[in-house]
């Protein structure tokens, strides 16, 4: 079976490394010339091709930003692809992709979101075990073909991933809470500290806790702008929910309600019993 | 040289493990019976003693909450301690400890704050390399005796720590920004997610980013309540600064100012160039 990966960054590149033994051949597509060169040099894919060369591949993986996925799906719908081709997208939000996927290839698409990543990007950030033991969310599978779903699940099993089936709308809401809002919070911490006069001073004192809380603020702004754009309503809801909790803590501190603050923190501890 | 560690939890226990080869004998004090037993079993200290037994030790380390440090300092001031005894406290805020330290032992005290820790507590959480390569902030050394400062620095060098001298007031303000406020934020994220109806669902989807952002919400509520209490004013200032950034992000998202949101994130990226 052959595979084409569109987008040779962290996600696409790691997929290439991890499925070397699964596919007989892996080709890659990337509009960035230096990504193309790096991907070949790093052995992420066997060969660089173009979209029009995909008419004979068995699996196409779209590991690019959401708007890019939608426009590539439109181009793919005009090609003479194999009837049973499996198209996988790794978009961070799922509703708009599914809604805008051209009808003639909707059954070929298995809309997926790997709950994996690092704060780094680009081909050099690719790592072979990025997907191992991680969750792969698969959305609205009733609209995908049986043969494509089976093929996608076989690949995810090969990657040793845990498959979770979910409604796209639900997915986008959950993703706002557990991924998108925490990114906004991390950027807010980073900027709050940078606004302080003596930033070097503060930064010298950073221990593990601060490093954790500001790590997501290393993330790629262009990629995250697009995700926030796509999931605006859910993101604002999740920021609101977070703000309510922050306000509660602030009020308790201001009014010196230390016992209630203790209980509020004790409740936060609970999260780690279920995680 | 002999040492007494008051408080045999994560900080005191790790100090005991790390200085085994530095001191000829290390005794321990803890009002918690099971901590006493664990500390002996885990080899954190050689022997359990009481405060009144400290009249011949050379170094006393106070690794307990801030209010406990202040009350132990008051008890120590009434004992017939060695003239040149070094007392080190590891309190997370420094101004109130220095202010309330009895005059007759002020020169013996070297007020210190190790920028080290984990989200775990108790003797079993102790690890030998907790302090290695970490920053030790030392406050208002002009009020400490030369011999005590020299002795403290020698110990910190043995631990391979980086020493930073700082004014206590300044320290408390910096600590609010880089440690105390991020804890409040982490607890707020944990609680915001727990308030969602389908917590198991959300939690199943947690990837590395969410784990980082909620890790501090595992911390000990009693310990943190006391720190927040002690540093109330600075903490509220730092929460305010964070809230301003969050509000800015929210406004940009609400008004779809995506380019400005991009610039705001780009600025957050800067933090990692100076860290």
UniProtKB/TrEMBL annotation, chains A, B:
EC number(s) stated in the UniProt entry for this protein: 1.3.1.12
Keywords, alphabetical: Coiled coil, Oxidoreductase
Record InterPro entries: 6-PGluconate_DH-like_C_sf, NAD(P)-bd_dom_sf, PDH_C, PDH_N, Preph/Arog_dehydrog, Prephen_DH
Coiled-coil zones: 225-259
All copies of domain Prephenate/arogenate dehydrogenase, residue ranges: 1-275
A Pfam short name: PDH_C
Molecular-function GO terms, alphabetical: prephenate dehydrogenase (NAD+) activity
Entry keyword Coiled coil: yes
NCBIfam families in the cross-refs: PRK08507.1
UniProt name for this protein: Prephenate dehydrogenase
Taxonomic source organism: Caminibacter mediatlanticus TB-2
Lineage: Bacteria, Pseudomonadati, Campylobacterota, Epsilonproteobacteria, Nautiliales
